Amino acid sequence: MRTLLAATSLLLLSSLSGLYAAATQEEVAQAIQTFLKDPTSPEAKAAGKVIFTYSQETPDHEISIDEKALPWLKSSGGSDRGTLLLVAFISGDLQEQFRKGTGKPETYAGVLTVLSVYEKLKAKSSIYFDPNLEHFIDLEKNGKLKEFLEAK
To answer: Rounded to whole angstroms, how far apart are CA atoms 68 and 139?
Structure first.
């Protein structure tokens, strides 16, 4: 299943690929701030490329792409929203790793960032609704999202 998710991730992010000079952690941290400020802006698209490229090229930080944490990934079919949410996940995961000074995946932080971006997308377009993310919102409101993500 992880192979399918990895393939789907690559398909979603094909629009983000390109030849970019390796960014520093500080540049990526700034790109994350730019992306999260307004994920649908032209600046966010450029920042998303920096974030994604860094996540793929750095040996210092690991991102775990897991169907349990990213259930919307398969159903998004390469959509712009799917790409935005994947970059949001990577952003939140990396941001927490930077904060902690570790290179270990921070799935919960990634999902919280996805939920934040999802809420921004819904505010801009009332037609966007994802039952998986709504379920995550309910779990978080009840203090059970982290436990759900960590359960095997």
So the answer is: 13
| Cβ 90 vs Cβ 103: under 8 Å | no
Please tell me the predicted confidence (pLDDT) of residue 21: 63
Pick from 121, 119, 115: nearest CA to 148:
115
**pTM of the model as a whole:** 0.86
Residues across the chain: 152
Backbone φ and ψ of 68, nearest 5°: -65, -40
**Structure-block tokens of residue 34:** 């730019």
Report the alpha-carbon distance of residue 74 to residue 69 in Å, rounded. Answer: 12
Query: Is the confidence at residue 2, as pLDDT, over 60?
Result: no
Pick 62 or 16 by higher pLDDT: 62
